[in-house]
Design a protein that fits this description.
Number of domains: 2
Number of strands: 0
Mean pLDDT: 84
Order of helices and strands: HHHHHHHHHH
Length: 231
């Protein structure tokens, strides 16, 4: 083999086996190195966003803190917005929605799916909290957040349609998706204001209950509030 010590090729089968495994191990090692670099950049960015604010932090400062070049940063992220709102971000709720029993209504299916996927968000509470603060200082970030919200609502609507064997989302599915995402955002705002670690799932349950109370109160023509929340 090119570049290999000839002496290594004359060893016994027991000692030559690792050499045959090296080509398959190398891609794994490179993947681990890429993951480490990406994590180091994300951690450096989060530390700097927390210390001096999102708007005041440059890509060059993030790269320097992670001990890499700005060019390396752009191999992993297209911009600093991607650190907080990656383009491939996916809540994981769509598959959970599709798996809900057809005996549930759209809203009930959304509720069950969002509750069961809530723990996925909990390890990322610091990033989500930093994102919330950064949104007020960056129009680009607000635009990305708006686009991602629309994408998430669309994914939910299509998942509801798939669950009911529809060829495309109907008005009920689209409205349920918008309502479900609004409930999720209210729950997450409460969650971010509470001390860590706070489970997110019970807050989602509470906000769905609140949404039902509000809609029922409006349908009866009664006051919509209990507590301080209104839609």
């Amino acid at each position: 083999m090119p570049g290999q010590n000839p002496a290594a090729m004359t060893t016994s089968p027991a000692t030559s086996t690792p050499s045959r495994n090296l080509p398959s191990a190398a891609p794994d090692r490179r993947a681990r190195n890429r993951d480490r670099t990406r994590r180091a950049l994300a951690e450096a960015a989060m530390e700097m966003f927390a210390a001096q604010g999102y708007a005041a932090t440059t890509v060059e400062e993030i790269a320097d803190r992670a001990d890499v070049s700005p060019r390396t940063f752009f191999r992993y992220f297209e911009s600093k917005e991607d650190v907080l709102l990656p383009l491939d971000h996916h809540m994981g709720a769509a598959d959970a929605i599709r798996s809900q029993p057809t005996s549930l209504s759209d809203v009930e299916a959304l509720r069950a799916a969002l509750v069961c996927t809530a723990p996925v968000n909990e390890p990322h509470v610091a990033r989500i909290r930093t994102l919330r603060g950064a949104l007020s200082s960056s129009a680009a970030l607000r635009g990305r957040d708006f686009d991602q919200r629309n994408r998430s609502e669309d994914e939910m609507a299509w998942a509801l349609a798939d669950r009911r064997k529809l060829s495309r989302p109907d008005p009920d599915a689209r409205l349920a998706a918008v309502m479900g995402f609004a409930v999720l955002r209210v729950a997450m705002d409460r969650w971010l204001d509470l001390p860590d670690p706070t489970p997110l799932a019970p807050l989602i349950e509470e906000e769905f209950d609140r949404a039902v109370r509000i809609m029922m109160a409006h349908s009866r023509g009664a006051p919509a509030h209990r507590g301080s929340a209104t839609w």
